[in-house]
Specification:
Blueprint: H1 36-46, H2 54-81, H3 89-99, H4 102-120
Helix pairs in contact: 2-3, 3-4
Amino acid sequence: MARSITKKNKCSRGHQSPISKKKSHSSTDFGHRNYSLYINRVLKEVVPQRGISSRTLDIMNTLIDDIFERISMEACSLMCFRNRCTLTPEDIQKAVYLLLPGKLAKYAVAFGSEAVQRYVHS
């Protein structure tokens, strides 16, 4: 006789399961983040007297989302290629070197490493 297998939820003590909770974040599409606030902050730091149109902001947001997705997919494939279960900073750095051209990759890795170091030591 076949038994029905039910998956027990670890959060079953009167709490909602993490899967059934509604996410309340302000993103444009499901699964995509909105970087508009950060783009505006960086623009105001670089050129305080300039603004940016909403159309250009959408284009920049899409560009950042696309680059992030490409880097994460490449880093994940590098992780699987090395038969590892943990994504390491080296995987992300190698993915950046593979996807971005020359000096851009070098600067991206340098600034990214510096930002991580500042975050760790703060």
